[in-house]
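Re: that chain you flagged

S.,

Sorry for the slow reply, it's been a week of failed gels. I finally had a moment to sit down with the sequence you sent. For the record, here it is as I used it:
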Amino acid sequence: MNDRIRFAVLVVALIGLMGGALWGGGFLVVAETPGEQAPEGTVAVVRPLGCHRPAEASFAARAEGWVEGQRQTIRLDQQRIEGGALAIQRQWPDRGIWVLAVEANYNGFTRSLLINLDPQTREPMLNGPATRKLSRSLTEIDIRGALDSLRNSPPTE
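Prediction finished late last night. Pasting the structure tokens below so you have them in one place:
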């Protein structure tokens, strides 16, 4: 087989493998500081973005933490707001160290956010490396790693 035919076969195979991503549209989620239109008590907003109708994404959200040496998981009540965004309200205690684990699914895509909570205030740290974005479901290793980094970090002032 000459090089042109091999190249054409390779291109056709790659297009076949990537077809869903090429024609299915993209999908992502972002964490934001609540705006004026967010319900009272909202500490973070997770907004779905992408092609087609990302507002139809399904969400699962929980707070994962260490409290007095014990691992805890709290499934968070979900409140959907404009544009299909998820308003997260504080539902975790004032003690221990915590992260928010949010997973979104839409059109065959899974996107996850792991948001550190400030160890002193227990409020979401929405900027910089305190929020991890993943193109897959979260694992226990992801969550334990985030909690361990908070447990081992120096206190903030």
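What I noticed first: The chain has a mean pLDDT of 87.

Talk soon,
D.
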